[in-house]
Amino acid sequence: MSAAPPSAAKPAGRRWLRGCLVWLVVGLAVVGACVWHLGEPARRAAAAHAALRPGMALHDVLAVSGDWFTLSGRTCGSKTGELAFYSILNTSGHPGVVLSKYVVVPPPGQAGSYEEENLRFDDRASLAAGLSSRPDVGACRELVITYLVPGVPPRSTFRVFLGPDGRVERLSDPHSWD
C-alpha cells in the first residue's frame, strides 16, 4: 500500500501559488511598460526643448530637435508668391516637405487657393541644407514641432519663435495633448 503522505499536497499548492506570482509579476511589467511608453512623446519633446537655445538658425534647430513626427512653419506671410506655410512629415527617416504658396490673394472674406510644392529629402542633413537655401522658408516666424509615437495616443508640441534674422528668439513650453 502506498498512500501519499499529507506533505505531498503542499508542493503542488506552492507550485500553483508560484505560477500565479510569476504571472502577476509579468502582468505588472507589461502594464508598467505600457504606461512608460505613453510618456515617450513628452520625453522626446522635453529633450529637444532642452537642446534648443536662442540664437540658433533653422538648420541648427533641425539638427538638435530630435525624432519629431511633424514640423510646421507658420506665420510666413501672405503676399502673392510668398510662402504661406510649410509642413514637414518625418516618416522612416526620409523627411517629406510640403511648401504651400498662396496663388491668389483673395478679397476680404473669400478663401484663397494654394499651390503646393512637394519635396523629398534623403535625411535630416539634406533637409536642413535644402530648407536653409530657401529664403522663403527663412521668412517664417514660427515653427511648431510635434512629437508622436505610433500606437501612443498622446502628442507633445512646442513652438519655436524666430526673429527677422531667422534665428530662435524664444520657445514655448512643451504641451501634451490627446
Which secondary structure elements does this structure contain, and how are they paired or packed?
Elements: H1 9-38, H2 40-51, H3 58-64, E1 70-74, E2 83-91, E3 94-102, E4 114-120, H4 124-132, H5 135-138, E5 142-148, E6 155-162, E7 168-171, E8 175-177
Antiparallel strand pairs: 1-2, 1-5, 2-3, 3-4, 5-6, 6-7, 6-8
Q: Give the topology string: H per helix, E per strand.
A: HHHEEEEHHEEEE
Query: What is the count of structural domains?
Result: 2
Q: What class, by secondary structure content? A: alpha+beta
Number of helices: 5
Q: What percent strand? A: 25-35%
Largest sheet: 8 strands, antiparallel
Number of DSSP-assigned strands = 8
Helix content: 25-40%
Shape: elongated
Q: CA-to-CA gap between the ends?
A: 69 Å
Low-confidence stretches: 102-107
Radius of gyration, CA atoms, in whole angstroms:
26 Å
What is the chains' assembly state? single chain
- Average pLDDT level: 78
Walk me through this protein's architecture.
The protein is of the alpha+beta class. It has 2 domains: 29 residues; 139 residues, no CATH class. Strands 1, 2, 3, 4, 5, 6, 7 and 8 form an 8-stranded antiparallel sheet that branches. The longest helix has 30 residues. The N and C termini lie far apart (69 Å). About 3% of the residues have low confidence.
